[in-house]
């Protein structure tokens, strides 16, 4: 199926992803692809996310992280928003193989052509969310309800959705 989305410069940050055609509520828009790495591999690597506030990593499950720096697709350009029109959903492998879990970006409302796609990254860091870290991870989504940071309150644990889907957090 031809893609309904395209990556181009965004007013939020760097590149973003925009609808080329109407996208309907509930539609599965794109899979978040990248190289599968263990958490230990990511921790030992040099992505420097916590310090820079820039990440192409997506926490897949307790074992693996999707690193879209390598083998990433257009989904890696989707920005975070405090008033998103999409959400990240985890499709767990029926056989229980954590390597085969997948993440999809789905529309949570109808999206018009030209609108930028976004989802709440749901980022919580292992360390305390200090004022400084919230600033490093500053949010520029421009929504009325923008919290000013992409970091989420730590009490926001993973929520289970009806039908076995899970909202996913990014990193
Ligand atoms: C997966 S990338 C998204 C693509 C990014 N715009 C780019 O050009 O590289 C995620 C990074 O984009 C930036 N970003 C995404 N949403 C943002 C937002 N609402 N406000 C500020 N920066 C954002 C942050 O640096 C974040 O770590
Ligand atoms: Zn925001």
Automatic annotation (TrEMBL):
GO cellular component, one term: chromosome
Residues covered by the SET domain: 3-122
GO biological process: methylation
InterPro entries: H3K9_Histone-Lys_N-MTase, Post-SET_dom, SET_dom, SET_dom_sf
Organism: Marilutibacter alkalisoli
Subcellular location: Chromosome
Name assigned to this protein: SET domain-containing protein-lysine N-methyltransferase
A Pfam family assignment: SET
Taxonomic classification: Bacteria, Pseudomonadati, Pseudomonadota, Gammaproteobacteria, Lysobacterales
S-adenosyl-L-methionine listed as a keyword: yes
Domain Post-SET as annotated: residue spans: 135-151
Location of the region described as Disordered in the Swiss-Prot/TrEMBL record: 149-171
Keyword terms of this UniProt record: Chromosome, Metal-binding, Methyltransferase, S-adenosyl-L-methionine, Transferase, Zinc
Recorded GO MF terms: metal ion binding; methyltransferase activity
Domain of life (superkingdom): Bacteria
Chain intervals with Basic residues compositional bias: 155-171
